[in-house]
Sequence to fold (392 residues):
Amino acid sequence: MDGQSEAPTLEEALASSTVKCIEAPVRWLDSHHESRVSTILPSQPGYAYAPHDVGTEQKVRPVTLPAVTLHHFEQAIVSTRSSSVLLRDSLVLERVEGVDPAKCDFATGHLLAHDTSNAKICIQGAVIDIPRGIFLGGNGATNYYHLLVEILPRLQHVLSDPRFASYPLLVDQTVQQIPNYRQLLDIASGGHPFLALPGHRSFRVGSLAYVSTPNAVPFNLRDDVEPELEQTLTRPSTIEFLRDRFYRAVPESNAALPKRVFMARKPGLRDYNQGEIGVLFGQHGFVAVHMEDLTIAQQVQLMRNADIIAGPSGAAWANLAFCRKGAEAICWMADTHADCAVYSNLAAAAGVNLHYLRYVTGIACTKVLYQLNYRLDPSQVRSAIKQLWGLG
Fold:
C-alpha cells in the first residue's frame, strides 16, 4: 500500500450525511430484461398528430407505441423526480423508446447529468430506507401535465396485481403540498395508501415495483434540438382510463358553467399580452378562468361542459383529457415547436378538435422557451376566431 486511503465503497458513500456525487454506467429500462416481471400492454401501432395550425392540413404520422412493462428491483435507490433507478452496478434510466437518447436530457431529481453511456448522480444526505413501494414519481412529477398524463396512468393495471396489494405508492411530496395533486392521486388510485417523499432526497427501496410509462415525451431536449413529431407517444386507452375514473368520481355540475372558456395565466412564466387577447375572446362570450384556482372536481366539470376552450400552451391543457368528445379548442405556441405533439396527441385521444396559432421566437431550446415572454398578434387571433367559428 502507498499509504493513501482507499476510496469509500458505495455503501459507505450512501450512508454518509454529506452531499456526494456518484458516477455509474447508464442502462435503459426497456432493455433491462433481468428486472422485467411481465408485459402489461404489448407494443402496438399508433399515430402522432402534429399541432393543427389554423388554415392548414394536419400532419399525421404512424408510430409504434412501446410495450408497457412491469419491473421489480431489490435494494434500488430512487428519487421521486427522476425516471431512474440506481443499482449497485448501473443507473437504469427510462427513455422514450424510438427517440435518439443523444437528443434528450432526462437530468432531474438526483440525476445531475448524463450522456448515452454514463451518468452522474448527486445524493444529498444519507439514503433513507423504505421496505417496499410502487414507484409513482419520475421526470415532471411536480408538473400537472406529466403527473396526470404520464405518471398516473401507470396505475391502470398494477393496482389490481395482488403481489403488490400491500405496497404503498411512492409519490413526490408535492402531492401533500398541493391539494389538487392529492385529489388527482386519490381519484386515479381509488384512495390507495401512499408515501409522499421529499424530491431532493434519495430513497433505497427493499422491494420496488416500477411500471414503464404508457405515454411519453422527452422531458427536455438538448440545446438547439427541435421537437419532432414522432417523439411524443400517447396511448389513447390510457386517456379513456383517466376520463372514466374522473367521470365516475366527479358528478356533472348543476351550476351554470361557461360554454366558452379562456384559460388565463397568472404572471410569472411565459408572460404575454394576455389582457389584449383576453378582451378579444371576451367579446365572443369567453369567460376567463385560472384553472389552478379550481379544485380538480371543478376543473373536470368545467372542461366536460365546455364547447370551446382557448388559451396559451401550458400544463392546464392536460385537462383535455376531461373534455367531452367533439369539443373545440385553440392554443398558441412557439413557432419553433411546430412538431411538438404533446397536446395535439392528447386532443386526438380525447376526441377534441384542437387548432393552433404561432408566435415568433426563433428559439428551439425547451428550457429557455419555458420562461420566455412573448407577444401574440391580435389580428391573427381575430382571423382565427372568425375562420374557425364564424365569430367576427
Q: What stands out?
A: The chain has a mean pLDDT of 93.
